[in-house]
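Q: I have 369 residues here and want to know how they pack in 3D. Can you give me a structure?
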Amino acid sequence: MRHLSWRDKWLGIRDSILSNPGFQRFAATFALTRPIARRRSRELFDLCAGFVYSQILYSCVRLRVFDHLANGPRSAPELASLLSLPVDSVTLLLDAASSLRLVQRRTAGCYGLGPLGAALLGNPGVTAMIEHHAMLYKDLGDPIALLRRDARGGELARYWSYAGRNKPAELSSRDVAPYTALMSASQPMIAQQVINAYSFNKHRCLLDVGGGDGAFINAVAMHAPQLRFVLFDLPAVADKASERFRANDLSSRAVAIGGSFLSDRLPEGADVVSLIRIVHDHDDENAMTLLRAVRRTLPDGGKLILAEPMGGIHGAEPISDAYFAFYLMAMGSGRPRTFAQLSDMLRTHPASTPGTMTTAKRSGSNGGL
């Protein structure tokens, strides 16, 4: 029989008490425990109803409800005309969204933006992710099959077309366009966190591996005018980055190089390398291939900036341990890792290879940095 610690024994007693129907009835009526019981009931109900909440949010985003309310309150009939929906359906949606603080009831029977709807209106990266989640919802239609690894090649696996491919460098511009656009839309909020956490002013050249269409480099360039840039990504993605550099007058400071870190050597000459939301997309073997490639290209004293949705960040556990864990499982590649796990991976390298690899400070705002 397994030996139980005092903590395990105490938690076992707690579990037996909380699961007892008699105690639950008592807690719901006793004045001192009633607020706790109600809060727990609400938390359990929110877990049950979470999918419905997400579909209300998804409907508001798809119908551009927040955009229609951006210039002021509107009535349900006005919105119904704009959305080509029955008035009673729009009223139902607005009342539901109001309960979630996405919209807010105003005077004369009108509706305006709620605090969460207003925040979403100013963050196009989040709204892009919400629309993208339609694929995740389909893949999670049978979560047990997903856990059994019975599901192969679902919606997300097809969307993230590089995941699981032996030769990702062969992907065409059409193959990479959807996920490149999504990452570009959501990159500004991540880039700002990195810029707030680390100063690039002491460096001369940044190599951004997996840099997409150059959104991160574009953000850093505005804060570090002395810095030169090299972007390395799949050839079709690097072409999009080159177009962005030309459009933003960065061609004199930034160059995009196509290739795959699984088979090609990374460009040399940079004294700082950034991996922004890259490592968590890959299983351990490919992730270590990437980190060793970074190690080889860094000079003595070089730095690695690694920004990830990390596990084990206090207060952000649902982001990594629930959302990202299931998202990446549906995608078919990668997993969220703790700061300690990433640190151990960074220390696992050939001792003879030069360079210094460090991570930026931890931050819990979106699962870790």
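Q: Anything worth noting?
A: The beta strands are 74-75, 103-105, 110-113, 205-209, 228-233, 254-258, 272-276, 303-307. The first strand starts at residue 74 and ends at 75.
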